[in-house]
Task: structure prediction
Amino acid sequence: MANRKRTFGRVLQKLKPANVAVGTKVRLLPSEFGRVADAVTMSFEGSLGRLRLDRVDIFHLHNAITETGGGSALSVGQVLGDVVPAFERLRQQGKTRFLGITAVGDTAALHQVIDARAFDSAQVVYNMLNPSAAEDLPTNYPAQDYGRLFDHIKVAGVGVVGIRVLAGGALSGSPERHPVASLAPEPIGSAMTYDADLDRARRLVPLVKEGLASSLTEAATQFALSHPAMGTILVGMATPQQFEDALAAVQKGPLPRAALDRLSALRHAFSGEPR
Result:
């Protein structure tokens, strides 16, 4: 990640693109939980140095958030009592404009943090295998239920960055990974294993066979953009062609209603399966 930031920093310095929003994030280690302010500042300043910037637009907390914390997760109290003040100091210093979280962890804890209105942005898991940030899941559906997180986000006035829109790559429908791609993640809010996500993704192929999308990745990208809460999405890519494909999917706009209805019917068959 550090090397990627340095590369990105060199590109920004050379091209100097206008109107580009730049964000970075911090994942605190358990050993740093007793000195959150110092750890946040050290991580942030290191990121600025690698990016060759003196400020960024948005700064995200990347730890999982649970009710009581433990392990690498932060508790709601730690986030609101320790992390938020440290983030706010950076904003007061003019080093970042917006504060954000990555909304992973316990659903109830995520709701509490969003409801506190301490953050401006949330990176939210939302994809064709797990739409629970937006809608009720069928009974016994094999995924984490994010409890219509978008409803809380709307009330709090928080912006949304969609993450895992391709379920870590599973929604390509292929087990093949490019040599420079990151390892398959698990769990990611849907199945507990990548192989299970891949199996269910393949069961969505009728969307393509029936002419409702050109490919599963196109459908997944369009699906993520279909919800009005979505501000932007993060799509992992390893080749220039993957970038072009993602851009083409975005330019097609939201997934049509017929495709959304068909997707819902296909997904309903997953109910009752082990996560």
